[in-house]
């Protein structure tokens, strides 16, 4: 388990730091930083890097937080949604080259399955409940609100499905509702999978 998480943390931190260097090199430190932290993909991958790293560090409030099963499951929801949305909606709109292409592959195609395997193999799941789902929605909903607020003043939207300047707020509200439904569905899938895994584990222990 520890070796696996060292691998995950190493890949995760390399990817997000390399992407930060790419972003600030292209746009300057201030604009690059603002745009970098405006992507849900990068915020989700940063959470994954912390989740991989937390079990390797001395115990503290922060490391305990990232080791909570509910928190690790929420991060699993986010990174799976990131991978699916990128593959279905965004991969043809973003075609980096060189280091950017390599980092893009890590962020969308390598790190998500690495983390999902960690969740499947190592995260305790017996206490996961559907009542957790509203709490898991707080982060993506706050992200959507912050993105729309920033876009209203700057005119910049990191994703086309949140571009209220181009499509208008009623259309974007529908998009957010659909995405929220997708988050809920994925979250419910995680809880159901966790409960099933817990029952199978108990049955195997009982013989």
Oligomeric state as shown? single chain
Report how far apart the termini are: 25 Å
Number of helical segments with 4 or more residues: 10
The major sheet is characterized as:
none
Strand element count: 0
H/E series: HHHHHHHHHH
Secondary-structure content class? mainly alpha
Percentage of β-strand residues: under 5%
Radius of gyration: 18 Å
**Tally of domains:** 1
Mean pLDDT: 93
Shape annotation: globular
Determine the fraction of residues in helical runs and give it as a percent range: over 70%
Uncertain runs are: none
Account of the 3D structure:
The protein has helices spanning 2-27, 29-36, 40-53, 61-67, 69-90, 99-122, 133-136, 138-154, 164-167, 169-206. It is mostly helical. The longest helix has 38 residues, at 169-206. The radius of gyration is 18 Å and the shape is globular.
List the helices and strands and how they pair.
Layout: H1 2-27, H2 29-36, H3 40-53, H4 61-67, H5 69-90, H6 99-122, H7 133-136, H8 138-154, H9 164-167, H10 169-206
Helix pairs in contact: 1-2, 1-3, 1-6, 3-5, 3-6, 5-6, 5-10
Brief digest:
The protein has one domain. The protein contains ten helices and no strands.
Q: Can you tag this structure with a few keywords?
A:
207 residues, mainly alpha, 0% strand
